[in-house]
Amino acid sequence: MNAPARIYLDHNATTRPFDAVIDVVAAAYREAFANPGSRHAEGRQARRVLEAARESLAARLDCLPEEIVFTSGGTEASNMAILGLTTGKPGTIVITPGEHAATIESSRHLQSKGWTLLELPLDTDGRIVDAQLDSLPWNEIRLVSLLYAHNETGVIQDVSRLSALCLANGVPLHLDAVQAVGKILVRFHELGAMCLSLGAHKFHGPRGVGALLVRKGLRLSPTQFGGHQEQGRRPGTEAVPLIAGMAKALELCTDDLDRRMRDMTSLRDRLQAGLEQTCAPIVVNGSIAHRLPNTLNVSFPGADGEALLVALDLAGIACSLGSTCASGSSEPAPILVAMGKPPEVYRSAVRFSVGESNSPKQIDDAVARIAEVVRRLRSNSTTA
Fold first, then answer.
1. Is residue 253 among the annotated active site residues?
2. Which helix (DSSP H) or strand (DSSP E) does residue 312 occupy?
3. Is the pLDDT of residue 185 over 90?
4. Torsions phi, psi for 149 (to 5 deg)
5. Which of the ends of the chain has fewer CB neighbours closer than 10 A, N or C?
6. Which of 63, 279, 319, 325 is catalytic?
């Protein structure tokens, strides 16, 4: 018996690069292979490709070209922001529950050096409670860092009140926008953040490249040493082909962003409606009105999440329990616990994230396979 065709519903973990992106990367490896810091014709050609990519990204992210620092990805960008903004006397770092490991582990490293870590409470939809922001110990806070769009639930934060308070109190705000860029409109200056992280492989760009946006005039201490590149903030020869590919990917995503958002929302909602009809009872985790257009975090009470993940993979469905960077952990998702979800909900949660490669027919096929797996696991659970 032939195995069923695979259906990839894990686009928040990574995306397949667009064919046009692969072409751009290959062309840059051939034609802009030189070191962009070299003072010869080949080096100048590489520099032109590098700076053209920087300007393209800046135009689509509402920032200045000189506010872009190229990195190896979103994790390095977040590390650079958090560690580079906390070089003075220890104070308080504010984050939210369920942050990406790049933020959590960087913050815990600082905590071991005397910094205080404070978590903002979230409501049952996974959003910041604005009414509680004024009571924060602003005279002690030195940095606020949080996910703009949550990688597990897809919940998008309204940061307008928070950014205003950060500005009024002279506290830098860092936004981890790795899951947001390329999926929704992200305008750096309008958000009011001082730093913003992104990674190309989340929006059909190449792996191994990302960026940190740093507001002009902000002092960001370097965390690596050995070169003058990127205004002395990130040493090492820039990966020109990957950077060119990242710029091309964002061009393709943002040039037709409204249509792409409609298409993703339609596929996500089709998946959700199908699961509600065939797998009841289910629980959709996170704000329904304020989430990424492609993300569905859903629980199937009566079925174990780990068992679901394995059984769905065998059924040809690629999905995840949450952040791939935290895979292997048997602990409940901190974001779902922080939202007040009971054990039967957070232990049965699965994240589906649709993308460019999915079709309505694939979604319908996925619903049928998921429903069969859920029915089987629930039946086994009740008879055990």
1. no
2. helix 305-314
3. yes
4. -130, 125
5. N
6. 325
